[in-house]
Amino acid sequence: MPAPRVGVLSLQGDVREHLIALRAAGAEGVPVRTAAELATCQALVLPGGESTTMERLLRTFDLLAPLRAAIEGGLPCLATCAGTILLAREIRDGLPGQGGLGVLDLAVRRNAYGRQRDSFEAGLAFPAVGPEPVLVAFIRAPRIEAVGEGVEVLARWEGEPVAVRQGPHLALTFHPEITGDPRVHRLFVAGLGGV
Amino acid sequence: MPAESNGHATTGTPRIKRGLAEMLKGGVIMDVVTPEQAEIAQEAGAVAVMALERVPADIRRDGGVARMSDPARIKAIIGAVSVPVMAKCRIGHFVEAQILQALGVDYIDESEVLTPADEEHHVDKWAFEIPFVCGARDLGEALRRISEGAAMIRTKGEAGTGNVVEAVRHMRAVSQGIRRLQGLRSEELASAAKELGASLDLVRETAQLGRLPVVNFSAGGIATPADAALMMQLGCDGNFVGSGIFKSGDPARRAKAIVAATTYFDKPDVLADISADLGEPMVGIEISTLRDEELLAARGI
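Output (structure tokens, whole complex):
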């Protein structure tokens, strides 16, 4: 089977790290900044970064509608941190008028752990990727405060969901892509087999 | 599910410090002096704001000693926006840095734009929980700052001039320095390290990566969307824009255009579109008209 072609939304954020992690997971990662580029991809990563910046750029360059249509049409997404905010049904503590793609049944609060001094790394139990904990970074991370019925929780931190799956989508509040452990990307890429 | 087999949380690690800068890549960090300006910057799509008492153009005009901003001003700006807030301390002034950390700023810029407090030593940045960004004019400066614990580098450029020529010079110097390292044999890297005043490990890592081991933004003189795109095409990871926005005729519009230009830096048709009708840019300064003692980039090498 040829390597699946996975876009990384490249408006802003840690695109490079996701491209590297995708390659390590056996996929072909390609930067996506236009609807035409999006149309060539089998799946999409929404990276970490500043959710308000990405949302403003999606709006300015009329990308919200094509992106939403692609996801609703079945384009699997892997979202980390800001990416999860963009996909959530409800954004708490967003900017006035900050609306995302609204495709995951989640309520997410921005910067819910505090400021940069509260950012941390830790080994996270993540049974879906294997018995060994995944080393992950929570950087000015959001919190998933509510999940809908169709959402499966894959990992928790202090009892709260930090990694969830809804249909073909994986959404995380942390960054597996900056620690060099490709298992979460492998899980996502493995799920693309039937796409 | 065995949620309790999670490990312990560790804050302030190099990965966490450098990680925030990774998240800022492809974005614009804007100098602001009031909460109102911070809101305009955030609304325009800034990935972070730099809280200042005066923008560099005014520091240049007013003269005198430029210091860390009033904590009340920094707090007000932190309270006004949800994007990360950075603030500047003087080179070597570790107590200003301690105060900024206590205020909860997200990044400290140990900056040549302020009057240096120590002519020999920079702040020991490893000693802090929050990350630092430092200016550099060439590869040696960049690697020395990283050795001291900087988690992000920016070119110095010549702040407050609205003239991009020095930012270009410094970005090219860093890139050329890295390309030169990549052409050296293993045993030659040792003497290169000595020349650069940096550790051999760091020099090796840089040669292997073909880039700095931390994020590298450009700064110092960026005033137009074309300037921002130029710096991106020269290989920087994002842009700091200081006086260029709030010293221009229509800050909100220009800020938004510079954000877009940093994302679509290699698409001239988009750049042509977003560069139109932005009003007056800031008035620039020709570098050769500055006296040596007016050049900020020569501070803290």
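The mean pLDDT of chain B is 95.
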